[in-house]
Amino acid sequence: MIFDTDIFIWVQRGNERAARLMEKTEKRYLSILTYMELLQAAHNKRQHSYIKDFISGFGFVVLPLSENIGHRASIYIEEYSINSGLRAGDAIIAATAVENNLSLVTGNGKHFKPIKDLQTIIFRP
Questions:
Q1: In which element (H, E) is residue 66 found?
Q2: What is the mean pLDDT of residues 90-97?
Q3: Contact 120, 112 (CB under 8 A)
Q4: H or E element: which one contains 95?
Q5: The domain over range 2-122 is classified in CATH as 1.25.40.10
Q6: Spatial distance between the Cα atoms of 88 and 50, rounded to a whole number of angstroms
Q7: CB atoms near residue 3 (< 10 Å)
Q8: pLDDT, tens digit (0-9, with 9 covering 90-100), for 49-61
């Protein structure tokens, strides 16, 4: 299962449901974009270290951006950005999930709803 950025934010805020979801998931993945968003939100090097330790300590695998992911994300933007407002970051995260044949867990289901080939698991805090 690949985790959207918002799930990590819920864990950081102390949400027990989000933490339990991560704990009970056997194989944990995140997009390189999610990893960069988490690091970008840090206020200092200590928070960078905390994020990196959390990711490695929980055994997350960071999935890299590939040519196929980039291509699929650009198709999603072409197909869905005008009508649904799909943003580039969400397109990359969705394409990462689809290209790696993974379900995406997110609390932002409306962001991904138009993408028919994406399997989502909606998280409710």
A1: none
A2: 98
A3: yes
A4: helix 88-99
A5: no
A6: 27
A7: 28
A8: 999 999 999 999 9
Residue 111 CB partners (closer than 8 Å, separation 6+): 86, 87, 90
Give which of 33, 38, 31 is closest to 96, Cα–Cα: 31
Residue showing tokens 């690091």: 39
What residues does 104 pair with on adjacent strands?
Answer: 2, 120
- Say if residues 105 and 3 touch (Cβ distance below 8 Å): yes
Q: Which two tokens stand for residue 39?
A: 């690091």
Q: Which two tokens stand for residue 11?
A: 């864990």
Structure tokens at 50: 């905390």
Question: If you average pLDDT over every residue of the chain, what do you get?
Answer: 96
- pTM (2 d.p.): 0.94
Share of the chain above pLDDT 90, in %: 96
pLDDT tens digits along 57-73: 999 999 999 999 999 99
Q: Which of 90, 74, 79 is nearest to 31 (CA)?
A: 90
Domain boundaries, the chain: 2-122
